[in-house]
Amino acid sequence: LSNRFVQAIVSVGDTILVGHKYSGIVRSTDYGVTWNEVLTNESVNSLIHLGNKIIAGGNGSGVYISYNYGETWTPSNSGLGNYPRVECLFEKNGVVYAGAYSGVYKSIDSCLTWEAINNGIENKLIFSITLNGNKIFAGSFDGVYCSTDNGTNWENCSTGLTSLIVNSLATFNSKVFLGTREGIFASTNNGISWDKCSDVPNVEINDFIEVDDQIYLASDIGIFNTNNNGETWNNFSSGLRDYTTWDFEINDNNLYLATGVGFLKSSDNGLIWTINKKGYIYSLSINDSLILAG
């Protein structure tokens, strides 16, 4: 498992699956004590758990499905084209959306088949997807696209954005947030217009999570949080240097960061940090009391 570029982690019970760039998926059934390669020579960007299935999306390989918690994998690319590169997977109410280098795809049969839903999308390089009510948002290389008819038609909804490369999308309390390479923007009218969150510097935003009605974001200079649904943002990593932060988790009042210098932990709201594991850490996941970092 060492010396691999980890892109995604998912856990189901005592089974852990880790997706790597260039080297596939490894699997552990003993909480990470031992690992076995279960999908090789693939570059995996995303992993999700859907009912009794695990879905993986990757570069050039498209989508794989496992029906036995990752032990074996079956390609499932019907409708995805000849060379599908899937950047993200998003599931809501049993419908799965895939963001790819060739646009947005939708599956209503548990990822067995896919339908391209790109009418109106000009730049089909899709990095992120979320839903707010009946509106779908897709973050692309030239802003954010929106659909109100389940993806049949799209329009560019980037009014107010001054940075158009949308890395991440999230919805909290009916408010939509998007992370760009130059900070964070928010919409209170479901994507009709966007306002810059001035409390966050013009840095790349990599991820969002919500914990106890507070929103946290990971950026290229650390962590910021808000307890008033994005009205104001606070630097939550004042005791941390300007480390690039790709992922983070909160568990039992402890904050864990995946950064460019290693796996960091703080037990005092970010005032003091300790490095538990040095090296590039890109992804984190928590399974009960087990912390997974890759």
Give a written overview of the molecule.
- It is a single chain.
- The strands form 8 sheets. A 4-stranded antiparallel β-sheet has the order 1-2-3-4, with no helix packed on it. It has a 4-stranded antiparallel β-sheet with strand order 5-6-7-8, with no helix packed on it.
- A hairpin with a 2-residue loop joins strand 29 (284-287) and strand 30 (290-293).
- It is mainly β and 294 residues long.
- The chain is globular.
- It is 0% helix and 53% strand.
- It starts with 5 loop residues before the first strand and ends with a strand.
- It is built from no helices and 30 strands.
How would you summarize what this structure contains?
The protein is mainly β.
Index terms:
30 strands; single chain; mainly beta; four-stranded antiparallel beta sheet; 294 residues
Major beta sheet summary: 4 strands, antiparallel
Q: List the total number of helices.
A: 0
Terminal CA distance reads 9 Å
**Total count of strands:** 30
The percentage helix is under 10%
Instruction: Show unreliable segments.
Output: none
The strand order across the widest sheet is 1-2-3-4
- Using only C-alpha atoms, the radius of gyration works out to 19 Å
